[in-house]
Hints:
The structure holds two protein chains of two kinds.
Chain A (H helix, E strand, L loop, with lengths): L8 H23 L18 H4 L3 H5 L2 H5 L39 E3 L15 E6 L2 E5 L2 E10 L8 E8 L9 E6 L2 E7 L7 E6 L6 E10 L8 H6 L1 E5 L5 E3 L8 H13 L4 E5 L5 H13 L7 E4 L12 E6 L5 E6 L5 E6 L4 H9 L16 E3 L7 E4 L3 E10 L10 E6 L1 E3 L8 E6 L2 E7 L6 E2 L3 E6 L6 E10 L17 E4 L3 E3 L6 E2 L3 H6 L6 E3 L8 H6 L12 E6 L15 H9 L36 H5 L9 H12 L6 H5 L6 E4 L8 E6 L5 H12 L9 E4 L5 E4 L6 E2 L8 H11 L1 H32 L1
Parallel strand pairs in A: 12-13, 12-14, 14-16, 30-31, 31-33
Antiparallel strand pairs in A: 1-11, 2-3, 3-10, 4-9, 5-8, 5-10, 6-7, 6-9, 15-16, 17-28, 18-27, 19-26, 20-25, 20-28, 21-24, 21-27, 22-23, 22-26, 29-36, 32-33, 32-34, 34-35
Chain B lengths: L4 H6 L28 H11 L15 E2 H13 L3 H14 L11 E2 L14 H14 L6 H17 L1 E4 L2 E7 L7 E2 L2 E4 L6 H10 L3 H20 L6 E4 L2 E3 L15 H8 L6 H13 L6 E5 L6 E5 L2 H13 L18 H17 L7
Antiparallel strand pairs in B: 1-2, 3-4, 5-6, 6-7, 7-8, 9-10
Amino acid sequence: MTGVVHLPKAALAALMLAPLLAAGPAAAQEGEAGSPTILLPDLPAADPASPGTAATPAADAADADSADAAPTATPPAVTPPATGPLPGIGAVRRDAAAPVPAAGSGDWRLGFGLPPGLPEGRVTMGASLPQDAILRLTGETVQQDMTLVLPDGAAIPGTLDLVLRSGINLLPQQSRLVVRVNDTEAGTFPLDQQDGWGQIAIPGDALVPGVNRILLDLTQHHRIFCGPEASFGVWTEIDMMRSGVSLAAGDVPLAADSFRVLATNAVSRGLPVEVRMQPGVDPATLGTVMQAVRAILPQMPEVRVLSPYDPVQGAGRRVGISIEQGTTASIRFLRNAQGALILRVTEGDGLDRLLAQGLGPEVAKPVLPLLEPGREVSFADLGQPLIVRNTRYADAEVPFRLPDDWMLLASQRATLNLRYGYGAGLPDGSILLVKVNGETISLLPLDLQGGAVLPPLRVRFPANLLQGGENRVSFEMVVPGDPPTLECPARETDMLAILGDSTLSVPPSPPMNLGDSQDDLLSIGGGQVGPMSDSGTLALPFQAQLAAETPPPPEPQTLVVGQVPQDLSRLPDRAALSRQQILQVLEGVIEVLPAPAASTPSQPATQPTGFTLQQAAPSGADTAAAEAEPAPGPRWSPRAVVEPIWNTVVPDAEPLADWIAGRSARAVLLAPAEGQPGQWSLVLRSGEDASAAALAFDRFRHDRAANGAEVALWLEDGSWTSWPPRPAPQLQGPVTRANLLAVVGNFASWGPAYYTAVLVGLALLSVLPAIAFVRLTRGKGNHG
Amino acid sequence: MNRRGMICASLSLIPAGLGLAPRAAPAQTGEAPTLAPLNTAWQAWKTANLTADGRVVDAYQEGASHSESQGYGLYLATRFGDGDAFRRIYTWTEANLAIRGDGLLAWRWRAEATPPVEDLNNASDGDLFYAWALAAGAEPFGLPEARGRAAAIAAALDEVCLRPLPAEPGALLMLPGAEGFDRPEGVIFNPSYWMPRLMTELGTEFDRPRLVQAAEAALRQLGAFAARGLAPDWALATEAGWQPPPAGFSANAGYEAMRLPLYLCLSGQGGHPLVARFAAAYAAAMAGGDATPTVMDALTGAVQERSPHSGYAAIAGLSRCAAPASGTGLPIPLFTIDQPYYPATLHLFVLIAQLEGFPACVPI
Lengths: 784, 364
């Protein structure tokens, strides 16, 4: 049979009968006395012959003869009508378990926004996001700001809904939540939802169109204990997905402003931006879209790229992106059946311009204040006018930034002039730890002379605790219970206050850093990412996640992403790590069959199930690191003597094989291999979530720790570690008389033994002429 | 093309290499799209609804299984080329529902009942999906006996479940079941049991032209319903025409009839006026962003029930897509397993229909 379609004769008969049939029911209707009036809207102009002419595809394809064929079975005799009970199948209800929503159930649910930068995935004192969209407020007193953006022209909702629950340790009688809406108190509510999630309705009288400020002020008392541990035992969680206000569907315009607000809210709650991309869409389109979307978000989101046919995962989202194939670029905002506002993008030329126009202006990203070296800067100038804490365990941070090329590794000192005070009568053992980048620089007692602001306290600390880029001075207060086995007594004064006129002074440094690899990594845009193999989809989350807000430089670096074991053979031969080493780090003990030549007659034909890296012999194809290892055997080798000495003297000379042995990681990042300049490789463990890996990689490359990295491991706890552990400093500017000592000091501090060896070498070299001179002159005298 | 190749040809979406008979050359639309994008959804559906022993569980119906759920499951297993699921569903169904003696399946099985099958009547839509899937899956899944079972069911449907329309004796229609629907006052039909494509293909495959004729008659009668409004869940056919069904049977366009636009789209009948009727009714009822209507007055379209389950919204979206003149703003939703068996199954069917016939209406 060819591709020609034959209509079966029965279908042709239906075609001929169609006009009659279409008229039939209408005629019957007219003839029926009292037949109901048809109130449904008129049909769109339909093909009058549709029922008959639209032959089924199967009928189209069937042989005409077959439709004419006589039935092989004789039509059955007609059975008499049934008079018994009606069949039970007619009474079956298909589905009515879900509560039937009333009219208006399509209202928008607008949630609250949170300030960027809340800790995610862990519990901290104060506000944190231990799970996506769950805001936990921990401690005896907590204040948290939220925002609610109401569209202009929308009816002001009567109430704000807060879905919350509190820990069992809370004493409800003395715990409360005060809510202020735009600085007007909207109500005080007991924190008594301890059996599960509950909802409170907050009067919305003070709400206005536009941005509203919602302040939550919690007082939480432990029912039994008092002390730092009890501080963590009192908490209230708010379900950010279910909290918010309801607005009529028509009140939320399907427009860019709504999208910006909803997307910002979602990202502030730790939720990923979900992109549904139709198979076949050019990955470059994904990068274009995400570049535009990142520009309107205040912080870096996690991006999840899914197919439109993948099931919805987790809680229903309120905002998302859909990218479809096409030839003419377009963007639209619409609402999907799950109630989310969707930015629907169709690919095509000029999409970047369309997105830039359609999404609105870029949002300024929060940037840490810059501390100018050599100048005394107040906490207030660093954005912290006053820090007050009233929990038995409390922490506070003053984050700031130093120039990227700031580096002091020697004994220079920075100075903190601390202005602080603490409450009178704090129990014995109350202390305040002052830290710089996590290192304690001072421990201050809080159980003496309380009740007043103390004179400025000068704390000098090693400047080498600081680094170019992001830094933080932090405070950690611990106030024991008094006694710890009873509930805390009421206090009327603050426990700790750190004033904004505290100052920080950091000495200037020569322009130095640990290399340019961070800049290299940051130059990788979404368009510079590709898969190691043709399997394709692994690279998509990276292409979305790494879409930069600004175009990459003219010669960006590239990144290839792969996964073990399938992509192992595609790793560059000259990579820093051998394939066996990568497998070992990612998958643990591996099974490696030794080369036949390595077998001995005494060994069984079948090999042991596996062995570790240390036992594995390097294969001939594997490389630098493996080759660098000392050869086994008793023979003396100069290298065996020199190498340990060299490793001791030069800080970054620890062999990679030694460094990586025994480590386990979720992904391995490799610097460009010899012969493949500019191409980084990232290998993921089998089954690892590519979206999470993309976000982790994005965060790593923004961290100063990325500088100097030749190999980096994404560890089980989500952090990164890199090799070499102490890369050599690099001078980024001229050596001047003013910075000479600091430059030398940096090199000397980086490798004291190396520095000493160099000095000794220079000293020896300088002695040689003297010795030569003495030998020459003594020789002459003797002769004379 | 021989008859045996009919269903196999329609199954051009089954992955190659399963031993299917040669495919028909695609007529005009080029190579048919693959269902591979839906594999994750299919796995999720199985996890939620299919037990290890092959029973498709309708949790809302107190964990019951029906010939319909087994038929739907087997149909999906066939479409997704899932031999393991096919064998499990087939085995369980044969052991527990194929007990009537005429080849048809008992319509319901309940674990807490003694015996689990209390009513031996069949449901012809379940038989139809089941038989079609058996015919299509027998060869690729290496179960030649399944084809014999399909033939037996097709024969039984032909001989037991077809009745002439009283007002139009030349038109055969498929009864909802073998027993109890042909009453002295008329014949009770359920229009949503008529799946035109499967009836046509099954009838052609097993040389049962009366099934093909019944499919054509069904299309005409659905057109007649469309001329009046929506199709009802149940209706009584009399010599005077269509009348409301007996008490206890829904005369609304509800959970039964909502499948009709879906079946029509799956049958290549997206242009059928009934699809446009449903599309217009959905568009009018959901203009304010309200949840999907699930029960509407069959004549006026007045909404009596709504549901938040996205499977129903998927049908609305597909209808709108097939009849774009009905309005905009009803996209097909993303698949979610957070819904009962029935809407989840319909949702998966909608996505198959969309992939095959409506590529522009990508879910969002």
